[in-house]
Amino acid sequence: MKKKGLLIAALTLAMSAAAAVTASAAGWSMENGSWVYLDSNGDKVYNEWRRGADNQWRYLDGYGQMALSTWVDDEYYVDANGIMVTGGWQQLDVTPDGDTADTHWYYFQDNGKIVTDKWMKISGKWYHFDPDGVMETGWVDEDMYFCNDDGAALTGWQQLYPPEDEDIWTDPFDDSDGKVWYYFNTSGKKYVPVDGRDYTEKRIDGTYYCFDNTGIMQTGWVLYDPSKPGIAGYRYYGNSGACVTGWYTAEPPESLASNYENAVDWFYFSKNGEPKVGPAQGTATYADLVRINGKAYLFNDKGNPVYGLQRVQESNGEYTAYYFNEDDRMVAKGRIKVEESDGMTSTFYFASSGRGYTGVYSGSLYYMGKLQTATEGMRYEPVQVDGKSYLVNESGRVTKSTSGVKDADGVKYATDKSGVVVKINDEEVGSVGRAAVEPIWWY
User: Fold this and answer.
1) Which residues pair with 371 in a beta bridge?
2) pLDDT (0 to 100) of residue 281
3) Long-range contacts made by residues 33-38, C-beta under 8 angstroms, separation at least 24?
4) How far apart are CA 376 and CA 354, in angstroms?
5) Could you tell me if 106 and 89 are in contact, meaning their C-beta atoms sit under 8 angstroms apart?
6) What are the pLDDT digits (tens) for 91-140?
7) Of the candidates 285, 337, 339, which has an alpha carbon nearest to the alpha carbon of residue 308?
8) Minimal CA–CA distance to 157: which of 178, 183, 138, 188?
9) Which residues contact 238 (CB under 8 A, 6 or more apart)?
10) 421-424/156-160 β-pairing
11) Please, are residues 414 and 400 in contact by the beta-carbon 8 Å criterion?
12) What is the pLDDT of residues 409-419, one digit of tens each?
């Protein structure tokens, strides 16, 4: 029994010694010039990650050797020292699938995985990575973003070449070499209409700009709202893209040019670029007059401020004349000479509102602003205005409080203190004489 006990003790001691040898061999070991990792049984580890004494991760490949300068599982990378790359940028000349044609940038997260198929904000800038983890440049994400050569998404105003699949017309005389302007928000997304419209406006730094459905900034005339007729649906943008406001001379839109007499004409645009548009010429009412900086103007249905003698309907339904200067298109006031549409020049008087005066003013008779005169050679003639017969001479002066003056035919007229005819040839009369002469309208 004593010998048997000694044998068992010796065997146990031998096994313990063997276990101690195995335990001491577990971990990293050099084998044939390559690092390997032995498990607790002394066997090499394959296709697994293990930490080193520096607490860095290293990978054991299919041969059990520590991998060097290679991709692992298409989403990790180990450097020349076998250490897993983490937390930063890495430029590599081989892709996870083994392509060595180009050099690409990748971004490795803190856990060692590359960023794939998404946007990531890094050091305050946005970057986009394709499904293989390659940092992208140029137009990305359905051409809604543009990443610079350093990969950062551009923001704000940028002049760029359009995406290759977009065929756009460019002005051959433009020195932009085919580049166009886009606007990108703070996250890098370009501004485009979101409601299915062909064009939309965006206010940037207090100014309106227009963009088409591909995000290109527009210049010149744009049919912004096709639901509005004629020029009313258009807006105009200058060479800088800024919406034109206030007075502006321009050629009319090409599609409407045949409706305009002048190759270049005046337009007035509101603060958001809408052109002032009025009624068809000759159908205006007093309510159609537009005041700009305290001055009155009248616009036609083509968006042009009218000029010359215009017929305007008053609030009471009656018509009168207004005159708009050809040089500044403002409504005229006071006594002026006006060329009528028949080419003849007549004297008119317009009140402070611009309304053609009807009645006696400063001793002369006017109807719808036009001076009423006796027929040439008649000396005197009664003219009916507002149901009253005023006696006027050939200069348009009203003859007041006279007991008797004769015209060229010897007819004798007597008038009251207002110049209204009360007697003809000493016989009392009512309304007599011819009707007042209307202006010959220029429209």
Assistant:
1) 366
2) 84
3) 34/65, 34/66, 35/65, 35/66, 35/82, 36/60, 36/64, 36/65, 36/66, 37/64, 37/66
4) 29
5) yes
6) 999 999 888 889 999 999 999 999 999 999 999 999 999 999 999 999 99
7) 339
8) 183
9) 219, 244
10) unpaired
11) no
12) 999 999 999 99
By the 8 A CB rule, do 348 and 355 touch? no
* Neighbour-count burial for 258-270, b at 16+ CB within 10 Å, e otherwise: eebeeeebbbbbe
Closest CA to 219 of 278, 284, 262, 159: 159
* Distance from C-alpha of 403 to C-alpha of 38, rounded to nearest angstrom: 140
Rg of the chain's alpha carbons, rounded to an integer?
46
Max CA distance (Å), the chain = 178
Query: Following CA atoms 337, 342, 344, 350 in sequence, which dihedral angle do they give, to the nearest 10 degrees?
Result: -20
DSSP string spanning 29-63?
EEETTEEEEE-TTSPBP-SEEEE-TTS-EEEE-TT
Q: How far is CA 243 from CA 85, 213, 235, 257, 273, in A?
A: 51, 18, 8, 21, 6
Question: What is d(CA 164, CA 160) in angstroms, rounded to the nearest whole number?
Answer: 11
Distances (CA, A) of 85 to 56, 75, 242, 283, 292: 10, 11, 49, 79, 68
∠382-384-388 over CA atoms, to 5°? 100
**155: Cβ–Cβ under 8 A, 6 or more apart, which residues?**
184, 185, 186, 187, 188
Q: What is the DSSP letter of 23?
A: H
Q: How far apart are CA 66 and CA 175, in angstroms?
A: 58
The two tokens of residue 88 are: 């930063």
| pLDDT value, residue 174 | 57
> How many other C-beta atoms can be found within 10 angstroms of the C-beta atom of residue 307?
19
User: Which residues of the chain have a pLDDT value below 50?
Assistant: 1-24, 172-173
Residue type, 172: P
Torsion angle of alpha carbons 350, 351, 355, 359, nearest 10°?
Answer: -80
Sign of the Cα torsion 164, 169, 170, 172 reads positive
Region of 273 on the Ramachandran plot (φ > 0 left; ψ -120 to 50 alpha; else beta): left
Give the integer Cα–Cα distance in Å for 381 and 407.
Answer: 7
pTM for this model (two decimals) = 0.77
Residues 6+ apart with CB under 8 A from 126: 119, 120, 145, 152, 153, 187, 188
